[in-house]
Amino acid sequence: MTVHDGSALEQRNDAASISTSSRHNAFPRVQGRAKGYDPIAVDAFLSRAREAFEADLPEETAVAASDVRDVSFALVRGGYAIAPVDAALGRVEDAFAAQERQRKIARMGARAWVQQQRQDAQVVLDRLGRERRHRFERVSFVHYGYRVDEVDLVADRIAGYLADGTGLTVEQVRSVAFRMQRGGYRETQVDAVLDAVVEIMLAVG
Description:
Elements: H1 8-21, E1 35-37, H2 39-55, H3 65-70, E2 75-77, H4 82-108, H5 110-128, E3 144-146, H6 148-164, H7 170-175, E4 180-182, H8 187-204
Antiparallel strand pairs: 1-2, 3-4
Helix pairs in contact: 1-2, 1-4, 2-4, 4-5, 4-8, 5-6, 5-8
């Protein structure tokens, strides 16, 4: 597991990325009757994120990488095109994850931090090491959950990445989507593991 120390150049690049993303009208708008993200909400969130990043606030008050990952915006006519905003949010999440990594290494020490990442990765591996079609709780047959075969396929790829660090990017995990089926895997459990994988990938850089 490689530890990145977060050089001054990397920090300046992260700040520049957030600053660029938070500029008003930084994104194209959808045309006609199409709907996109609410520009007012997007601009407000990205401005708050930039201010928090540049102020380097304490962890308990700062915007976290998970806040960026979990944010959602209403869809309105003439709003911001979704794909460019999502791409910018990915870059902003990366910047906050790097900032959080630097803080934790400074507080814990590199060796303890690396050990914590290994433990977190092992928890996920233990879950994904279960028998196929039994890796997550299933909803009842009258309800819809994530399609089991698709989730299992992604789970195999994640397990491979956690074992050798190759074959998968954080963008691929962020963008994964599953079809639905009756009696499928419970969405909240699958989503929680995917979030944990993103956090691990961002933590190790």
